[in-house]
Design goal:
Helix content: 40-55%
Structural class: mainly alpha
Shape: elongated
Number of helices: 2
Number of domains: 1
Number of strands: 0
Radius of gyration: 12 Å
Largest sheet: none
Strand content: under 5%
Length: about 40
């Protein structure tokens, strides 16, 4: 699965806001498990 930076980048491109942002992926560990999201 792609990392979170990939998802944010795709959203920014879709909304035409990508030129105004700098995205930095310091450490990509993959997506969080669904258990983490359900607790959140």
């Amino acid at each position: 699965m792609p990392c979170h930076i990939y998802a944010v980048r795709k959203l920014l491109i879709l909304r035409r806001l990508y030129e105004n942002c700098i995205l930095i992926g310091l450490f990509c560990h993959g997506c969080s498990s669904m258990q983490v999201w359900n607790k959140y």
